[in-house]
């Protein structure tokens, strides 16, 4: 049985019986990204989406200890379904292969990484069809691990170091060219992206106008199923919202469902089902 989340009792999420149409949930899994959450108890959970709307809420596996941090969602093993990427407090990177919205196992990637590097996102920045793991060094240098069948093939720097007035917020194909882009936000609120080609930055382009600090950019993914990744936000009142993207530009801003309590963290966007 599906488990849904209902925002009641002061915005806290409560498990209720899901009224989603299973046919729509199945259809959502064919090419629409889902929104991945983690509860403060450690429970991972996702919202299947269809045309930008939530169809229900489903738990994934059992709660995870706070020695692990959910860092991103992407297809690092190249099987066509996005995986959930974690990092242990020792620095060890690890992923859950996913199928039909459920975890198939757990696999370590390479060796532990020092805390001078931060895992910022997962996406196909080199255009080879498998999602890569994108890092940023404390110096500002952006770097990625090309991935093949869930394993690291090497490490490649992207462009030059970036000042700490910019934050790397996510990875996704916001311009619809088939290669995932790197999405930033300036400390003045301005969203911006780097179009990518074969693992290298080809430009830098602002998206719309600066956004107030009452909104946090939470992820990048195709939540409306139109083939271009969208930018997913959350307001400080818990409201989830996305910018529909076309050719690198915002075409609309749309709320998803009702506000979510702060006992849940929006941890990523990807097609886990």
From TrEMBL:
Q: Which SUPFAM superfamilies match?
A: Integrin alpha N-terminal domain
List keywords of the entry alphabetically: Signal
Q: Does the keyword Nuclease apply?
A: no
Q: Under which name does UniProt file this protein?
A: FG-GAP repeat protein
PANTHER family xref list: MAM DOMAIN-CONTAINING PROTEIN (PTHR46580:SF2), SENSOR KINASE-RELATED (PTHR46580)
> Which InterPro entries does the record match to this protein?
FG-GAP, Integrin_alpha_N
**Signal among keywords:** yes
Q: Which residues cross the membrane?
A: none
